[in-house]
Amino acid sequence: MIRWLLWLLAGLLLGGVVHLATILLLPRTATRDAYARIEPLAPVNSFTLLPAPQSDKAPLPFMDPAFATAVCRYNLSDGWLKLTAPVSQAYTSVTFYTRAGVAYYSINDRSAGHRIVELDLMTPEQHAELPTDENITAADRLIVESPTLSGLIVVRALIPEPGLQSMANAAVSAAQCKVQS
User: Are residues 25 and 43 in the same domain?
Assistant: First the structure.
């Protein structure tokens, strides 16, 4: 009887290890991740308005139909990016993702405190190369350090009611990510 319990325990332990290994390795081996889905839709270093998600297909996983969404595929190998995103009348958020889909920074219109979200996106090496100017303080310039050279910037604006969809689309469409040298 104890032998069967040991075999059962060993089987459960092995099943748990295989399950955990599969869950942890699956995102790294997936070929149709968010970046790959956006690649044919959006050019590098410019924002593209994504179509509203349909029940059978969506450009990005877990898209909310209550939000207008624009995405920028960025590449920092040519220089750092200057991001400007006007805020909508309702709610606006800007989220930064690595190439692997890991979110590393997010800001919304309430945190920005202005009618426009402005920040600089650069690698730690590019940040270290910036000249130190005593007239420009950290409060004057928001700098976000990207852990990778490429990734996604997603701007979302809430559509509070269906009649305001064009307003939300215009707000996210006006976002810009331009390479600075």
Answer: no
Q: Summarize pLDDT for 7-32 with one digit per residue, the tens.
A: 999 999 999 999 999 988 877 777 77
Q: Whole-angstrom Cα distance, residue 156 to residue 140?
A: 24
Domain match, 52 and 13 both? no
pLDDT of res. 112: 73
Q: What token pair was written down for 175?
A: 């976002």
Residue 105, token pair as written in the block? 């920074």
Based on the fold, state whether residues 10 and 76 are members of the same structural domain: no
pTM score: 0.81
What is the C-alpha to C-alpha distance for residues 39 and 130, in angstroms, rounded to an integer? 30
Beta pairing partners, 153: 72, 96
Dihedral angle sign, alpha carbons of residues 59, 107, 89, 175: negative
Amino acid at 54: Q
Strands (E), the chain: 47-49, 67-75, 80-86, 92-98, 103-108, 116-122, 143-145, 150-158, 176-180
Structure-token pair, residue 118 = 């402005």
Cα gap 144→123, rounded to integer Å:
8
